[in-house]
């Protein structure tokens, strides 16, 4: 969109009026420079989208959630390596999947390209919105809102035109069209804040660019068509608010390809000495955990053994897990961990036996070993806990990978008996196999794992409080109060995500 430039006379009149005013406050500066026309811009390397406020690097997965009482909406945004040529410009494909609970309700693709001046252009979008009946059967797929620059995909009689998603150097009150396909996609953006502090639900604070995005298509609906979007430099969108009150927040950024291979130079000369402060494994120690969903509880006893197992040529410590629902055994698990010279604790595999296994004594499909059948080592806890650092935690297979990101290093955890832990390491976990789920993991230096919980609080796996009184979800005691120990306070860490997911599935299958 082009904006008329004010005449010299008009500028002089404005300056004189400001000079004659008795007000002690200066008028706010209003800047709205024109954006370039799409036909005039040059795209030398359009796939290199390294914009300060909106970087798009292939392999990056950004997961957002909106939690409202018992309803959870999860948005999984993935920057693909896939390329699509639109209006003669090679464009990066960004996939977005939206889940309500565990149900996929939308799958869309957005296409972006960056010009030589640094503006990121919105080149088009394809949409699939899924409608289900009360029985959960798919009854309709809508493609409303799809468009592509240079094409008339909806048969309107005219072609869509690309718009700037975000300018190279946004300034206060700057506005521009993000897309234009009359009656289908008419988006406009305006910068309303430059250094806005945003506090997310996880307690983290971010200095952000604030942009109001408006859908200019006329509608009879009374609900607001504006979204307030907050961009963090080097990350992208961290929060999106609808004026009507709906809010979606960034939960984690997972960079696939990071930490997916064990470095050749890694030093495993003392691999069985696992003394990472946030995941100490000391042979002979015991710990008890409780997993709670609603009123149901299952218990797990964890023992770090003196046994070792050789995996990919690296000696690993064997840690045993024994799970019961209070009446009968549910699962037996053996995990293998090792530590490199940099303090990274590696998860090298596991063998799992459950009561749900069809053949007695046969291992569950959850079993895997690094170096076999495509499985690779994963890092459970890093030696360096840089904020927002991302790494692959589980590499059972490319389709079943799990990633982790460091959220905080100053989190606070209180167990049901009142034992309080400060300065805890908070990690968020996401699995490609279950993309609609996110979990927080909390570790305390010198203690190890304290808690693994779904981000909506519906499932919690937690260390039984040594003061007795059980574990807690938002301060509610569960009734578990047995603490085990051979050497005082319990100090064995353990892998949370895989166990929690499997244990809950096993318990459900027994009902």
In short:
This protein is mainly beta. The chain is built from two helices and 31 strands.
Question: Can you tell me about this structure?
Answer:
The protein is mostly beta strands. It has 2 domains: 29-255, YmcC-like fold; 286-509, no CATH class. Helices cover 5% and strands 50% of the residues. It has 2 helices and 31 strands. The chain has helices at residues 8-20, 497-509; strands at residues 49-50, 55-56, 60-68, 71-86, 89-100, 103-114, 120-132, 138-142, 147-148, 161-166, 175-181, 185-199, 205-215, 226-232, 236-242, 247-255, 286-293, 296-311, 314-324, 329-339, 345-354, 368-369, 378-381, 390-395, 401-414, 420-431, 434-444, 448-454, 460-463, 472-473, 476-477. Strands 17, 18, 19, 20, 21, 22, 23, 24, 25, 26, 27, 28 and 29 form a 13-stranded antiparallel β-sheet that branches. A 12-stranded antiparallel barrel has the order 3-4-5-6-7-10-11-12-13-14-15-16. Strand 15 and strand 16 (247-255) form a beta hairpin. The protein is elongated, with a radius of gyration of 27 Å. Residues 1-30 and 468-511 have low confidence and may be disordered.
Choose one word for the global shape: elongated
Q: What is the arithmetic mean of pLDDT?
A: 82
Question: Regarding CATH, which class of the largest domain?
Answer: Mainly Beta
- Tally of DSSP β-strands: 31
Unreliable stretches, pLDDT < 50, 5 or more residues? 1-30, 468-511
Q: Total domains, how many?
A: 2
Radius of gyration: 27 Å
**Separation, N- and C-terminal Cα atoms:** 61 Å
Total of DSSP H or I helical runs spanning 4+ residues = 2
Biggest sheet statistics: 13 strands, antiparallel
| CATH-level-2 architecture of the largest domain | Beta Barrel
Helix content percent band: under 10%
CATH topology of the largest domain: YmcC-like fold
What structural class do you assign from the helix and strand content?
mainly beta
The portion of residues forming beta strands comes to over 45%
């Amino acid at each position: 969109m082009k904006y008329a430039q004010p005449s010299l006379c008009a500028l002089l009149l404005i300056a004189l009026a400001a000079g004659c005013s008795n007000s002690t406050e200066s008028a706010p500066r209003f800047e709205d420079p024109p954006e370039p026309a799409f036909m005039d811009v040059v795209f030398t390397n359009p796939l290199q989208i390294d914009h300060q406020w909106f970087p798009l690097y292939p392999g990056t997965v950004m997961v957002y959630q909106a939690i409202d009482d018992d309803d959870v909406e999860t948005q999984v945004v993935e920057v693909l390596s896939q390329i699509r040529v639109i209006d003669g410009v090679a464009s990066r494909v960004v996939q977005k999947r939206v889940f309500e609970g565990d149900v996929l309700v939308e799958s869309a693709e957005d296409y972006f390209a960056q010009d030589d001046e640094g503006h990121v252009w919105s080149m088009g979008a394809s949409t699939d919105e899924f409608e289900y009946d009360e029985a959960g059967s798919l009854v309709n797929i809508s493609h409303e809102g799809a468009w592509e620059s240079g094409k008339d995909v909806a048969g309107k009689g005219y072609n869509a035109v690309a718009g700037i998603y975000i300018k190279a150097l946004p300034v206060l009150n700057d506005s521009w069209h993000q897309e234009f396909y009359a009656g289908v996609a008419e988006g406009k953006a305006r910068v309303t804040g430059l250094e806005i502090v945003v506090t997310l639900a996880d307690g983290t604070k971010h200095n952000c660019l604030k942009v109001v995005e408006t859908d200019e298509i006329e509608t009879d609906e009374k609900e607001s068509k504006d979204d307030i979007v907050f961009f963090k430099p080097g990350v992208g969108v961290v929060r999106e608010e609808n004026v009507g009150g709906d809010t979606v927040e960034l939960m984690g950024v997972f960079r696939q390809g990071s930490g997916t291979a064990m470095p050749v130079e890694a030093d495993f000369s003392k691999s069985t000495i696992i003394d990472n402060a946030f995941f100490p494994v000391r042979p002979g120690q015991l710990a008890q955990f409780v997993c709670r969903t609603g009123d149901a509880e299952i218990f797990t006893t964890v023992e770090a053994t003196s046994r070792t197992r050789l995996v990919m040529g690296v000696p690993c410590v064997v840690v045993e897990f024994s799970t019961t629902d209070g009446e009968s055994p549910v699962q037996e698990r053996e995990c293998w961990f090792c530590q490199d010279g940099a303090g990274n604790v590696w998860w090298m595999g596991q063998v799992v036996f459950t009561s749900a296994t069809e053949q007695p004594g046969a291992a569950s499909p959850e079993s895997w070993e690094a170096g076999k059948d495509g499985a690779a080592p994963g890092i459970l806890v890093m030696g360096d806990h840089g904020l927002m650092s991302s790494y692959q935690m589980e590499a059972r297979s490319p389709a079943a990978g799990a990633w982790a990101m460091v959220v905080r290093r100053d989190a606070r955890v209180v167990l049901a008996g009142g034992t309080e832990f400060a300065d805890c390491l908070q990690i968020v976990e996401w699995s490609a196999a279950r993309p609609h789920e996110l979990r927080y993991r909390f570790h305390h230096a010198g203690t190890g794992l304290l808690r693994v919980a779904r981000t909506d609080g519906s499932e919690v796996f937690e260390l039984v409080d040594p003061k007795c009184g059980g574990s807690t979800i938002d301060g509610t005691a569960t009734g578990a109060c047995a603490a085990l120990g051979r050497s005082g306070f319990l100090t064995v860490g353990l892998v949370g995500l895989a166990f929690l997911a499997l244990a809950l599935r096993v318990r459900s299958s027994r009902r």
